[in-house]
Amino acid sequence: MKIFISHTAKDKDSYIELINSLREQGHTVFSIYDIKMGENWINKIKNALNKSDILILIITENYLDSSWARTEISSAIFDTNIRILPVVVGDLFLPDYLRGFVYRKVKTKEEITATVLCDIARLDNVDDNNTLFKKRAVTPGEEDNIEEKIEILKEALIDNQLTLVCGAGVSRDSAIPTWNELLVNILNDVYLSDQNLNADSKVTAETLLSLMPQSNLILGKYLKIILKDDFDRIVQKHLYSNYNQEREFEQSNIVQGHEEINYALETSMMKAIVELSRPKRRGNRLESIITFNFDDLIECALLKHHIEHCSIWKEGQIYGINALPIFHVHGFLPNLKVVDTPNLVFSEEAYHSQFIDPYSWANLVQLNTFSTNVCLFVGLSLSDPNLRRLLDISWRRNQRCKHYIIMKKIPQKNRTSEIVTMLFEQDANSLGLNVIWCNDYSEIPNVLFSIAK
To answer: Which of these, 206, 222, 231, lies nearest to 342 by C-alpha position?
Structure first.
């Protein structure tokens, strides 16, 4: 039988022992150490992988951190003819794209050889041949060890080492426009007022993006130039336009004349964030919140529940020891009030300025938090180049996946959706993030509530 063993150089001892044992039993095992000087080792590996009957994955913490190992996995999974046996060493989270295979768990590296030899020997048995090295059905919730991950996040919360990192997705149910919608709404405001055109002439985000995919970069720069000193005010107006309409509707039951500035539209997401932020008897609350959003929806929710907090959006700001810091790393534009120097990272040049300045307060806050805390990412897509850069720096320092991101899983209807899911999880792992998959966005608050319990 032709066998390919995928491993990392750091696990060479276990690899060599397994190779020798398999060869003693008459199997043909490809070894990268047999490649001669001057040979194209990449082609050698690819050819050997394509010709092999079985791929054995020695999955250790070193393995999951290896980009080359992830490449070998991808190549093998897309080849439907090869049988795969993942051997998981120690207490690791097996990536979702591998949990669909029958796998073995061993406590130590010393158990690898005996376990693999036993499984390969069983292939002569007809019944075992139909179950070993095959894909299997995965039960809901099992595919990403969600309960185990929630327990780890609970411990981090109790130890006051958990940071919530929020993107635009946390505001999706709060009548806050998406980034593209915000830009187009501001453009329409300027365009219609300047040229007295009727509502039928309005630009839509869909039309603009279909004709000009890079429009969000160009529009941000253009709008900041033409609006000048009115820029922050106009952004604030359109950021909260729909939110305030919903808010006024909800406030219709409040006694007339009673001003409730701290009143917030409490979506399930905001309620879940409040619970995470609330000090508990058996432990602490969140250590901090990092948000890429301009809005103060989180602050309004915390204020309503009398949870002490402090918004930070520029260098030099300080907060009390009992206050939960909320770092607005892309600037802060609260509703119903004006702040000096909102520091909005809105246009292309502002973003580039933050990106190239390694000592900007926002970069330092993120890098320090990613390096010291356990972070839970919610409402983010991992497409921000600066965020990716900072996560990569943190991962290189720690060399382990200690952060988590909640993502909606693409329905696995075809090969393309399987590939997209696998590549996203591999990419997240390469940045130090474990993925918690959910079937719908509505499930995300429930995950947060489970952590807060």
So the answer is: 231
Please tell me the pTM assigned to this model: 0.79
Q: What is the DSSP string of 379-408?
A: S--S--HHHHHHHHHHHHHH-S--EEEEEE
Q: Kindly report the CA angle at 134 between 130 and 137, in degrees rounded to 5? A: 105
Query: pLDDT of 41-85, one tens digit each?
Result: 778 888 888 888 888 888 888 887 777 777 777 766 666 567 888
Which residues sit opposite 3 in a β-bridge?
29, 54
Residue with tokens 């489970």: 450
Q: Are 286 and 277 in contact (CB under 8 A)?
A: yes
Residue 119, token pair as written in the block: 């499984």
Amino acid letter, 434: N
Q: Residue 69: beta bridge partners? A: none
Query: What is the C-alpha separation between 121 and 55, in angstroms, rounded?
Result: 15
Residue 368 CA: distances (Å) to CA of 39, 162, 375: 44, 13, 11
Distance (Å, whole) CA 409 – CA 141: 12
Phi, psi angles (nearest 5°) of residue 394: -65, -45
* Residue 126 C-beta-side C-alpha neighbours within 13 Å: 0
Can you say whether the dihedral through the CA atoms of 224, 225, 227, 230 is positive or negative? Answer: positive
In this prediction, residue 359 carries a pLDDT of 85
Q: Would you call 428 exposed, middle or buried from its count of C-beta atoms within 10 A (0-12, 13-18, 19+)?
A: buried
Q: Cα(118)–Cα(426) distance, rounded to whole angstroms?
A: 30
Displacement of CA 351 from its chain's centroid (Å): 21
Asked whether 17 and 113 are in contact (CB, 8 A), the reply is: yes
Q: Answer for the pair 53, 30: CB distance below 8 angstroms, yes or no.
A: no
Cα–Cα distance for residue pair 394/401, rounded to 1 Å: 10
Alpha carbon distance 250, 246 (integer Å): 6
How far apart, in whole angstroms, are the C-alpha atoms of residue 170 and residue 269?
6
Please give the single-letter amino acid code of residue 431. Answer: L
Taking 50 as the pLDDT cut, the residues of the chain under it are: 137-143, 253-262
Contact 170, 378 (CB under 8 A): yes
What CA–CA distance (Å, rounded) separates 275 from 272? Answer: 5
Q: What strands, in cross-sheet order, belong to the sheet with 54-59?
A: 28-30, 2-6, 54-59, 83-89, 104-106
> Could you count the other beta carbons within 10 Å of the beta carbon of residue 284?
14
Q: Which two tokens stand for residue 151?
A: 């327990």
CA distance 191 to 435: 42
Rounded distance between C-alpha atoms, residue 452 and residue 448, angstroms: 6
DSSP letters for 116-137: HHHHHHGGGSHHHHTTTTSB--
